[in-house]
Amino acid sequence: MADFTAFLANVAGSVEGYLDRVVPAADTPPERLHEAVRWSLLGGGKRVRPALVIATAETFGGKGHLAYGAAAALELIHTYSLIHDDLPSMDDDDLRRGRATCHKQFGEATAILAGDVLQTIAFQVLTNDELLPGGDKRLQIISLIAAAAADMVIGQQLDLDAEGAQVTLGQLEQIHRKKTGSIISASVIVGGLIGDATGDEITALTRYAEALGLLFQVTDDLLDITQSTETLGKTAGKDIVFSKATYPSLIGLEGTRQLAGELAATADSALSAIERDTSLLSGMVDRVSNRVS
Amino acid sequence: MADFTAFLANVAGSVEGYLDRVVPAADTPPERLHEAVRWSLLGGGKRVRPALVIATAETFGGKGHLAYGAAAALELIHTYSLIHDDLPSMDDDDLRRGRATCHKQFGEATAILAGDVLQTIAFQVLTNDELLPGGDKRLQIISLIAAAAADMVIGQQLDLDAEGAQVTLGQLEQIHRKKTGSIISASVIVGGLIGDATGDEITALTRYAEALGLLFQVTDDLLDITQSTETLGKTAGKDIVFSKATYPSLIGLEGTRQLAGELAATADSALSAIERDTSLLSGMVDRVSNRVS
To answer: In this structure, which CATH number among 1.10.10.60, 1.10.600.10, 3.30.530.20, 1.25.40.10 belongs to the domain B2-290?
Structure first.
């Protein structure tokens, strides 16, 4: 577990450096746009998605060092979605990653544009990175990430549509599978593709990622209730204020904790079908589970 | 010229069909998102950028029929930018392509998401289309389009920053080169790449496209003053209301008409360096010039 903590810290530092290089400097005109991009992208964030890409590529043939372009692209897409989700017409949030949200700091227009260009830069990185596999294999990776980014937007709309409405457990799962799960799954599968995982291994990775993605959301719901705004770095208790459907609101705190345990077990069981050293991937499950235990 | 009109009509129809196939049906959940996407994307638009891609690919080796994926992608990116530009915190417009803007019809949140996913779908199309060149050539095309999309956002921020400020002719040109010119240039250059144009030909095409892109903006400025809202399909006279710098405000109506003539001549002169039948490309210059003559 000490090793896993070191792995996460190492990935976070390297990804930060990579991201810093692929976005324009803050003094590049128009400065306001590039300051906004850097404000939201750098200096915070747990870099969970990059860690998943790199952990999976490392698990399959030690290819983690070739995966930074894909890792960065997925973090860029994640960050653009956070900026747009926080806008007044969406979740209307003031705090993100422990600081003011992009639109609070730079105004709505620039925040919209910063999100827009972060998505674009993600695809620039995917095409221009020098270490990712080339040719049609890279096209497959870009296509997969684009499909996940589209699903993420669909999930965001489903989430908007559900506000104030009666939502079933199945609908809630569907929202999260699209909104958060799609990018988590893409992170793992892309890591597997970079590591030349077999078809059977990709199938197992997909099961792992789907359980991990839901586990991530379930623990997020728990943290929203049990943690302070200061600890979270984003506004706590928002789900209740917005009367958003959450796992605790549908199945109670105890039921939600039990579900988290089941999802962790499903993720670990998927890994047992892979005849590799999957300790980095099981480390991710433990890390997410431990957020709420 | 009769042929050129038929060419444009044919491209517009084929592109409409292609776009209709690559976005989800209106009854695909979440319906609100997909209705918004289709509202803004289909049933209108001059399809200038697709026409440029296809005209250029056709000019070089008759490859127009292979270029629809790139043509559609550039139209998807253009449409996403229109939706976001029209938002209340940006240009705050009610009318676009002769109908209500996306946020007037579907609300701000869904309009933001519709723009977001249109950008994503552009990159999906670029990776999944079956007729575009494969492998590293396609990566080059995607990279070029992504760079243009990033420049477009930069131009939009420059435009925002210039609102109400004193703007020089040089600054105005810089705004337009980024905001409109980048996607126009990418359309032409990508068409050239699909048609295997030589390096010298790409250089000539770049000169042609830069002049055409500015010509397009200069004539837009003239139309904003001289035409009615009904004819334009978007709100006329907005530049004056927003006290935006325009060519007429800086160099007068007559000076602007003269500049349009010079830009058309520059575009045509660039074409004369290309030893092909460039009538489709010169037809585009005439068509844009004739909007205001």
So the answer is: 1.10.600.10
